[in-house]
Amino acid sequence: MGRLSLDDFADRVRLALQARDSRELRRSLSGLPPIWRDGDELRRFALAAKRRAVMFAVSIVWLFATFVLLIAFAADTFAHGPTIADVVGYSTAWVIVTALAWRVRRRA
Question: Cα dihedral sign for 49, 53, 55, 56?
């Protein structure tokens, strides 16, 4: 149901390998359903699109958070001078944000 038999597949591969122009190549693909009608392929495509969208969104949020932490650290250092507590605090906050972003991207 929607799949090729081994003989049909072999015939189509033979036609494709013997094709000399695009018209002959298209003949080896005639009668096949378009890719959008294959439910498995459509699900794989949707899952890959979702994963790319999540990775893009997480990257944007991570960049924004990193930029905000950098600006806050620079402003705090300029206003009060550099302190160990600031360096440790902002570094820890950045590591936490990075770890969360990494975890979300892995789960996507």
Answer: positive
In one-letter notation, the amino acid at residue 20 is: R
Model confidence pLDDT, tens digit, residues 17-68: 998 988 888 888 888 776 666 677 778 888 999 999 999 999 999 999 999 9
Instruction: Tell me if the pTM is above 0.70.
Output: no
> Does residue 12 contact residue 4 with C-beta atoms inside 8 Å?
yes
Distances in Å between the alpha carbon of 101 and those of 16, 54, 56, 71?
45, 10, 11, 20
Instruction: Show the 3-state SS of 25-38.
Output: HHHHHCCCCCHHHC
Integer Cα distance of 18 and 75 in angstroms: 69
CA torsion 61-66-67-71 (nearest 10°) is 140
Q: What is the dihedral of CA 41, 42, 47, 53, to 10 degrees?
A: 130
Residues near 76 by beta carbon (within 8 Å), at least 6 away in sequence: 86, 90
